[in-house]
């Protein structure tokens, strides 16, 4: 649906890193900025999807951070 160039640029690898590593190391690994943001500039459609992905990631980390504060 999105074509191979969009997928090849590393959106899904960043999500697999988020899924299988702790959030402190996963944050720095998955947010290698040139690699992660490159697909956002390829077309208007993928930039819109990229904003959605960033929003989901932001909510994910915010919820993890909030859960840690509550546990302490």
From TrEMBL:
Keywords: Membrane, Transmembrane, Transmembrane helix
Transmembrane regions listed in the UniProt entry: 48-67
Record's protein name: Uncharacterized protein
Species assigned in the record: Handroanthus impetiginosus
């Amino acid at each position: 649906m999105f074509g191979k160039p969009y997928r090849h640029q590393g959106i899904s690898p960043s999500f697999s890193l988020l899924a299988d590593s702790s959030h402190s190391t996963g944050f720095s690994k998955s947010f290698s900025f040139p690699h992660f943001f490159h697909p956002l500039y390829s077309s208007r459609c993928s930039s819109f999807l990229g904003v959605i992905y960033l929003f989901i990631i932001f909510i994910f980390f915010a919820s993890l951070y909030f859960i840690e504060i509550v546990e302490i």
